[in-house]
Amino acid sequence: MAKLLYKKESYKIVGCCFEVYNQLGYGLREKNYQSAIEEILTEKKIKFEKQLHAPLKINGKIISSLVPFVIS
Hints:
This protein is α+β, with helices and mostly antiparallel strands. The chain has two helices and four strands, in the order H-H-E-E-E-E.
């Protein structure tokens, strides 16, 4: 099992995700969850950037682009 580089920060972020899930449940569109997570992160004063693109690679070849949340 890999070690977390930012254990404390990772637990805070996962906690925010669970908070959103506990309040909204399942079955909504991704953009709804994104907005809710943004709200919770902002409320908890966790700085983040949204809609950043990162390459998705397989066998060393870029096949697409991901849009991950980036916590700054």
